[in-house]
Amino acid sequence: MTTENLAAFQSELSEMVRRESEATRRAFHAQWDLPVPQRVDKGRCIDGLKFAAVEENRFLRFFCVSGNSSDFREGDLVRLSRGQPTLPLLTGNLFRVDDEDVWFDPTENWRSFQHEIESGAWTLDPSYIDLDSLYQQAIA
Length: 140
Fold this sequence. Notes:
By secondary structure, this protein is α+β, with helices and mostly antiparallel strands. Helix content is 35%, strand content 29%. The protein has a 6-stranded antiparallel beta barrel with strand order 1-2-5-4-3-6. The two termini are 16 Å apart.
């Protein structure tokens, strides 16, 4: 492969990764822009979560006040917010999920937010990891 062919291949691959990352961002933002009831109806949001307890000094357990009809599964990456997933308080993974409780494993230190977490109602929406810059560096 010539240097010119390699440069063209890198450029094409880089553009493909950029387009795929942008499509992922657009898809998530389109979902997040929907009203909470629509996201709930689609199974892509849990609304009305109330803080229940800290479990094993790591997990935040929330009670599903209105039940859980989402399609979330253990291990899913999610955002905890007051209904606006573009402004999450925390992101993390689901450790346990059932009809009544959700165990959330935050990726950030949540202790400074504990008082806020313990008050009010919360929503969980799916999240994603934007790996565009990592892939672009690997291609380069």
